[in-house]
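INTERNAL AUDIT FORM
Audit reference: QA-55
Scope: verify that the stored structure record matches its stored sequence.
Auditor: D.O.
Record contents follow.
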Amino acid sequence: MAKILVIDDERSIRNTLRDILEYEKFKVSEAENGLIGVDLIRNNKYDVILCDIKMPEMDGLEVLEKAIILTETPVIMISGHGTIETAVEAIKKGAFDYIAKPIDLNRLLITIRNALDKSNLISETKKLKRQVSQTYDMIGESDALENIKDLIERVAPTNARVLITGENGTGKELVARWLHEKSNRAHAPFIEVNCAAIPSELIESQLFGHEKGSFTSAIKQRKGDFEQANGGTLFLDEIGDMSLSAQAKVLRALQENKITRVGGEKEISVDVRIIAATNKNLKEEIEKERFREDLYHRLSVILIQVPPLRERKEDIPLLVNHFMNQFCEKNGKPQMEIEEDAILALQEMPWTGNIRELHNVTERLAILCDHTITKEDVLKYAQPLIG
């Protein structure tokens, strides 16, 4: 049941609004002046606030200013002495809407429904942000991970290019996202390109965009990832798999901060921070003439080596608990316990797939086991299921 706070110094108005709103199945609280209203807002959570403008001691616009600081709840202003200027001022100060007295019942209820939609959207957005934050948490207390966290804190606020190396599944994308989230570009796009997943003949169009008619399937103009990431961060994952021709164009873009779309002639200025990652030894790739040495030096201003899970086994208990709790919360399952012997058994595994493999095994255990996970469960289910 949605909760609505009515702030108005006229008892008759409060009573009328209460009758209307309770008939519509809302739960209603009242405040006879702005001071009481602000105190209620400070100590309670409401879904919508209705506030009169002309009140003694503290007028409605002052209540609105304080409410905006205290809560994200939509505030609908009501006044019998309103003018267009008052309405405009209320909206500018952050009011959700403005309703003049005498109150039109249909208008009031429609406005409240719209305000509730906004409240629900705010709550859902917060929930999604929490889920995203949990998804990209850096879990662990090992010296290796603490060193990476410290490096991220120092490097993120700069525009320095970063090259992240490490085996598959170690969390290179996670490091890239944290570099972006802790940078001055966090408000701007984070665009990820998996260079290994895009055919070599399409990688240039993907990165730099193309003009209409530049090739057979180019039926309209397309902005590339460099343009889409303008002002933000472009993450070139598995850059060791990029073709030499695309490498040459990326190098030029880094040197000049300009790109040209495939089939185009116009140079387009871009402001992009580049973070690259690879599971390959790029120095060996350079010796085999499969990677440009000049591009390597452009990318590797800062080098971050992400260690494999076998080198940070002390983090496994924290990772398992994190993945287990995440899975149970997402799927509405009761929280599960895992015995100490089961954790030890997990720590003894080789983890060739690193954190990605540990995540999958933890989810498998959460699905197939009962309330408590034992060592026998780990030995039984940690390997791929056969038959």
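Auditor finding: record pair retrieved intact. The chain has three domains: 3-133, 143-307, 311-381.
Action required: none
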